[in-house]
Amino acid sequence: MGDFNLALVIVAIVVCILVFLFNIYLLINYQHPDDANQAYFPKFVVVFGLSISAISILMLPADVANRQACRHAIYNGACNLTLPMKELWLAIYIVDAVLVFFVIPFAMFYYEGDQDKTIGKRIKSAMCWVVTTAIVCALLLGVLYGLAGKADFTVRHLSSATASFPNSFDFNSGQQCIGNSARQCSAYSASASSETTWTMRATFPEYVVALATIVGSVLFTIFGGVGIACLPLGLIFSFIRRPKAVITRSQYIKEATELGKKAKELKKAADALHQEERSGSKGRKWRKNVKAVEKEVLLLEEDVKALEEMYPQGEKAETAWAMTVLGYLAKLILGILGLIVSVAWVAHIVIYLLIDPPLSSFLNEVFIKLDDIWGLLGTAAFAFFCFYLLLAVIAGAMMLGLKLVFVTIHPMKWGATLMNSFLFNVGLILLCSISVIQFCATAFAYYAQATAAQEIFGHNLQSLRGIKYLYKYNVFQIGFIVLAGLTFVYYAAFGWRRKKPSAKFQLSS
Q1: Where are the membrane-spanning stretches (predicted)?
Q2: Are 441 and 60 in contact (CB under 8 A)?
Q3: 26/47 Cα distance (integer angstroms)
């Protein structure tokens, strides 16, 4: 058994190294050419943040494997090499909170600072924003921890008289306790007045994790609820709206001319906004116009991509069209598989979390049976379902960013992603990863029982004052299901329609 624990430690180290190398690969291939050989600090933050988010998702399956390592231990030293999961959880999520609320905002303020200013002035400006945020957060955390940083546990006070030790034990449904006259134990026959509240102060790291989880849970409920439906349905309806045939050259010239006019309008608008920025008149209207330009540029790029698909050019035009057709077929297959996973998630939430008592443990039983087939099969399926939730959050954020004005759009594009977009998406992933893990620890409580994650995200988190009512009444789970249903209805009503050409772009005056 000790050898198994050592192997678990080695696997954890190897996985961390592979995750770090994979994130470096993503950064190199997604970064914009303008950021090559510069912006090293934001790049380090991006790689480190992505690694922390991926490791945090993988820690829950590792926690389950860590628990199983000592299940059949036969000597005291068998579990000496198990991972200290509780300490690792707290360390990961404290680092997560520091990255989200301090390091990433500093990197974004520094990167987006006026390029005409010196490096010292850009650092000073970014530090002013971050220090102000740090002071406000520290005061808020201190006040909240002092006033409400306690956990209330409902316990029952029991007492009984002593009895002689019997010569034989005879327990059955009618004789549940020791003693000739004892029919029911005190826990069954105790009155309601025996219940009392046991209060203890939570540790400060656990309270910080709890508050970060609440902030992430709000975003997770909104983005995840929308994304769990739009992620698979978006792929399926993308196949439905696909170009059916190659357009003629005259049609291509006509569409390209219109897109060229739109590009000139956006270039003119961007130059005007840059001129306003230089003059120092960056008010609310300016920021609103910047977001409007970003949205129109993204839509224009999508139109250009669609036009290139409908009229492939070059010597390998036929090959390009064949790859386009295969790409849409792949989207259909992935969309159908994703729809199955999404339906399984929604059904599991309703069956296991919202109905009391649960009708079935559903996916928990599936993972356990997969573990019986092969030791890591259930753990791998468990990790996949957790990762799928994180992908749903990202898909929901992108969809709402296109539909709503107040959400800043930061698309990730192969070979054309600026560092501010990288940082924004890393911050979103980090913030929501806390809630994804907490949500999975609750949804798969039967499979992940007796783990360190259950201790942190289960009883302790759900017993904190003020916070516990959000979990007692399943606020986040209900919101998740409602938004998933509304998104499904929206796609059923409008998802199959082709996008109409946008009107002439104008800045608000």
Answers
A1: 6-28, 40-60, 90-111, 123-148, 207-240, 332-355, 375-402, 422-447, 475-494
A2: yes
A3: 9
CA distance 386 to 441: 10
Separation CA 113–CA 125 (nearest Å) = 8
Mean pLDDT of 409-423: 73
- For residues 345 and 349, what is the distance between their CA atoms, to the nearest angstrom? 6
pLDDT at 74: 44
| C-alpha of 461 from chain center | 18
**Computed over its alpha carbons, how large is the radius of gyration of the chain?**
28
Q: Helix or strand or coil: residue 154?
A: strand
On the 0-12 / 13-18 / 19+ scale of CB atoms within 10 A, 205 is: middle
Cα 236 to Cα 271, 320, 388, 495: the distances in Å are 38, 21, 17, 9
In whole angstroms, give the CA distance from residue 489 to residue 38.
46
Tokens describing residue 92: 């990961």
Residue that is written with structure tokens 């090959």 in the block: 319
Per the prediction, the chain carries an average pLDDT of 77
CB 104 within 8 Å of CB 49? yes
d(CA 45, CA 422): 10
Tell me the mean pLDDT in the region 71-77: 48
Record the pTM: 0.74
Torsion 87-465-439-349 (CA) sign: positive
Kindly state the tokens that stand for 325.
């057709």
CB–CB of 110/122 below 8 Å? yes
Question: In the numeric block, which tokens belong to residue 184?
Answer: 């029911």
Is a pLDDT exceeding 90 seen at residue 341?
Answer: yes
Rounded CA separation 505/263 (Å): 10
* 3-state SS class at 115: coil
Mean pLDDT of 138-154: 78
Using CB atoms within 10 A of its CB, is residue 230 exposed (0-12), middle (13-18) or buried (19+)? buried
3-state secondary structure of 316: coil
Centre a 10 Å sphere on the Cβ of residue 500 and count the other Cβ atoms it contains.
6
Q: Specify the higher pLDDT residue, 341 or 404.
A: 341
Residue 263 C-alpha from the chain's centroid: 35
Residue 93 bridge partners (DSSP): none
For a pLDDT cut of 70, what percent of the chain falls above it? 77
The whole-angstrom separation of Cα 470 and Cα 454 is 17
